Amino acid sequence: MGQKRLNDDIHSLKDRLNPDLVQQLSSKKKQLKSEEKARQEQEKQRKIKERQRKEANKSFEELLNDSELDWHQFK
Question: What is the Cα–Cα distance from 25 to 36, expressed in whole angstroms?
């Protein structure tokens, strides 16, 4: 019986709200989701640029250590 009452309360709350308020809340939700997505995309781009900057500033020793080539093969 408690579960049925809980379900009735959930449905009746939405029915009790002003339709304009429901519309405002849903539009705000969409806006926040789009802002979050844009923020994540900016963060992704920042990380890519940071990785490229680090790669460009590597010393010869770091590049040599990261290389998959083995000098023993070319003796």
Answer: 16
Which of the 8 DSSP states describes residue 17? S
51: helix, coil or strand? helix
Q: What angle do CA 19, 20, 26 make, to 5 degrees?
A: 90
pLDDT in tens, 30-64: 999 999 999 999 999 999 999 999 888 888 888 77
Whole-number Cα distances in Å, 20 to 17, 24, 25, 74: 8, 6, 9, 75
Per the structure, the count of domains in the chain is 1
Residue range of the domain that includes 39: 2-64
> Is position 72 within any domain?
no
Within-domain flag for 59: yes
- CA gap 21, 61 in Å, rounded: 62
Long-range CB contact pairs, 44-52, < 8 A, 24+: none
